[in-house]
Design brief:
Order of helices and strands: EEEEEEEEEEE
Helix content: under 10%
Oligomer: single chain
Largest sheet: 7 strands, mixed
Shape: globular
Number of strands: 11
Radius of gyration: 13 Å
Structural class: mainly beta
Length: about 120
């Protein structure tokens, strides 16, 4: 079992930055690939970024490439999402998720554990 708790969301002006954190419980955190997803009102949950268990490989959605960076610190059982140059269309609830195994995956159905989400609101 893995429990995930996100933090770091808030209200920011367009062009600003936020860093989301996702703290995981459990001693096997380093065995899990991690991902960030988001869901805006009235829209389906969409993939944002993923990182392998070692942190050696990352993958991001086209909509956030060059602006968002995913990283992890296995010693702290934490995964991060650094978000720069934020746009109003980035407004959503952001969720972190964990899946046991290797590789990168952008399918929400591949992830076994989810956090409760943190709200990010970008004003224009």
């Amino acid at each position: 079992q893995v429990q995930l708790v996100e933090s770091g969301g808030g209200l920011v002006q367009a062009g600003g930055s936020l860093r989301l954190s996702c703290a995981a419980s459990g001693r096997t955190f380093s065995r899990y690939a991690m991902g960030w997803f988001r869901q805006a009102p009235g829209k389906e949950r969409e993939f944002v970024a993923a990182i392998t268990w070692s942190g050696a490989n990352t993958y991001g959605a086209d909509s956030v490439k060059g602006r968002f960076t995913i990283s992890r610190d296995n010693a702290k059982n934490t995964v991060y999402l650094q978000m720069n140059s934020l746009k109003p269309e980035d407004t959503a609830v952001y969720y972190c998720a964990a899946r046991f195994g290797y590789g990168l995956d952008d399918a929400a159905t591949s992830y076994n554990y989810w956090g409760q989400g943190t709200q990010v609101t970008v004003s224009s």
